Recover the amino acids of this structure.
């Protein structure tokens, strides 16, 4: 009863907070210019561009947009801070300055520099240029990318997931001080922790050494899982589908298993026993490349590709109701799209867990390979 | 591959790296360490409890076995004691019987002896009395003889009658 009350209270606060910010954002975005067709996504190319846009990171947190009866494009959401490292140092401004423009036509002047946003990337205009010039392959010719430390939508997602994980598990940790068996949310979280420990870390790393890596494995597992699930919500996060994020996870894994490699591991990697001496350097190169490049790469691409593909398929199936309207009529295409996207969404919920599991599993497997101490024959 | 590289945002990578490392450290300190420690504590607690329960069960088994053994021993002892007691009782009865027999035999013997003695004494007394009587009679007879013969005979007869009655 108590928990239910608390949850309702929390939800109410969350909803109120969301709506107030949305209203605020709505007011500040009122004078945006709409696209020529009113921003509707109707054709296949528009749909594919829209999906591409969603899959990329975004500098503002838009929930949805629509065209008002006056033909004005209205966006619901809130702007996020842009922090860029330019030729003149750190420059910050709010992403609302771009007025939701994503093709480089809105130029923002800040700190004596001009910026444009092209396909979710911030460009700094060279010299005295006032407009972005494009070549035939749609590459900007007079602007270059800047190092972008913005609080993008993905960063918001990462922070949000981190906060959720921290709140949930620190609460669980506090519960243990008073009672040995947790209650409420802790009762749900505890078996997950035990699952990661007993099914992932222990069998792969070994009873003796797994404790050292538990912090990393548990954090990564819940981080990926929560973000995968957040990606399935209509908030539209695509954090684990960002190659920078998965690359970061994979590289941290690599650094951990390289720095914790046992003597045996290095001996076997660099000078494989039981193999003709001529082959040993070749094997050493293969093994090194395997551990430093191929294994992290497989980790990062697997997660990235699975999540991106999932988002892509779900969005394409939702778009079916637009693309198939001509062929089957509105009712059939909408029904088909609903059934199929529902089906795939359910599978995606499974995939969300599966990918988190596989990433953590393989990480612990690689760590296990590195820390293993062989019985010498 | 080119689009992949193009999509790669070094800034996001950097942010993710910082946030993730901070997250790992914070969670490690405030969540995972205490959680895993208490889980382990609880597991060892459960294991210990199970072990001690098993020990207690074994002890109980031992105790019941002991109890049974003790009961058996006690029963055996009781039986032995009973048997001994019975034997002692029988012995005592037998001895008592023996003693009683002896005592009665003695008593009877003594009685018989004293009876014989008494008899002897009585006989001696009788003899003495008879002698006295005879003398008396003789005296009286002698005295009466002088007066009446018939009276003398009556007297003797009467005295003799008395004697036989005696």
């Amino acid at each position: 009863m108590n928990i239910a009350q608390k949850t309702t209270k929390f939800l109410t606060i969350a909803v109120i907070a969301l709506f107030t910010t949305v209203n605020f954002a709505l007011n500040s975005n009122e004078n945006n210019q709409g696209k020529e067709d009113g921003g509707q996504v109707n054709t296949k190319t528009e749909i594919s561009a829209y999906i591409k846009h969603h899959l990329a990171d975004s500098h503002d947190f838009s929930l949805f947009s629509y065209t008002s009866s006056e033909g004005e494009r209205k966006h619901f959401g809130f702007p996020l801070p842009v922090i860029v490292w330019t030729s003149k140092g750190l420059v910050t401004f709010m992403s609302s300055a771009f007025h939701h423009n994503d093709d480089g036509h809105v130029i923002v002047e800040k700190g004596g520099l001009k910026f444009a946003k092209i396909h979710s990337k911030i460009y700094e205009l060279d010299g005295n240029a006032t407009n972005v010039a494009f070549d035939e392959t749609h590459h900007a010719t007079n602007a270059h990318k800047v190092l972008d430390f913005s609080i993008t939508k993905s960063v918001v997602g990462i922070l949000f997931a981190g906060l959720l994980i921290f709140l949930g598990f620190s609460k669980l940790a506090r519960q243990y001080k008073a009672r040995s068996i947790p209650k409420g949310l802790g009762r749900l979280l505890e078996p997950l922790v035990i699952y990661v420990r007993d099914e992932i870390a222990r069998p792969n790393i070994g009873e003796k050494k797994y404790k050292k890596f538990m912090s990393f494995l548990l954090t990564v597992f819940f981080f990926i899982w929560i973000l995968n699930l957040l990606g399935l919500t209509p908030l539209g996060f695509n954090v684990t589908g960002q190659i920078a994020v998965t690359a970061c996870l994979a590289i941290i894994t690599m650094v951990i298993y390289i720095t914790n490699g046992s003597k045996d591991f290095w001996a076997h990697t660099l000078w494989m026993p039981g193999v003709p001496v001529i082959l040993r350097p070749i094997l050493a190169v293969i093994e090194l490349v395997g551990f430093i490049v191929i294994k992290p790469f497989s980790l990062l691409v697997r997660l990235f590709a699975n999540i991106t593909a999932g988002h892509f398929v779900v969005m394409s199936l939702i778009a079916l109701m637009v693309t198939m309207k001509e062929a089957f009529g509105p009712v059939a295409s909408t029904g088909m799209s609903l059934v199929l996207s529902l089906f795939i969404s359910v599978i995606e919920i499974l995939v969300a867990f599966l990918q988190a599991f596989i990433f953590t599993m393989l990480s612990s497997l690689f760590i296990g390979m590195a820390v293993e101490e062989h019985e010498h024959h | 591959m080119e689009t992949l590289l193009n999509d790669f945002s070094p800034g996001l990578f950097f942010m993710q790296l910082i946030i993730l490392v901070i997250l790992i450290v914070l969670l490690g300190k405030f969540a995972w360490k205490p959680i895993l420690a208490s889980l382990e504590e609880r597991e060892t607690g459960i294991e210990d409890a199970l072990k001690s329960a098993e020990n207690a069960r074994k002890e109980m088994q031992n105790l019941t076995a002991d109890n049974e053994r003790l009961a058996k021993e006690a029963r055996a002892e009781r039986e032995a004691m009973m048997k001994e007691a019975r034997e002692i009782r029988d012995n005592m009865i037998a001895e008592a019987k023996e003693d009683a027999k002896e005592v009665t035999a003695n008593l009877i013997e003594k009685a018989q002896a004293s009876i014989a003695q008494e008899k002897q004494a009585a006989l001696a007394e009788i003899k003495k009395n008879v002698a006295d009587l005879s003398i008396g009679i003789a005296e009286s007879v002698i005295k009466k003889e002088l007066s009446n013969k018939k009276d003398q005979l009556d007297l003797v007869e009467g005295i003799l009658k008395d004697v036989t009655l005696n």
Q: What stands out?
A: The first helix of chain B runs from residue 2 to 7. The mean pLDDT of chain B is 87. Chain B touches chain A at residues 4, 7-17, 19-21, 23-28, 30-36, 38-39, 41-42, 45 (CB under 8 Å).
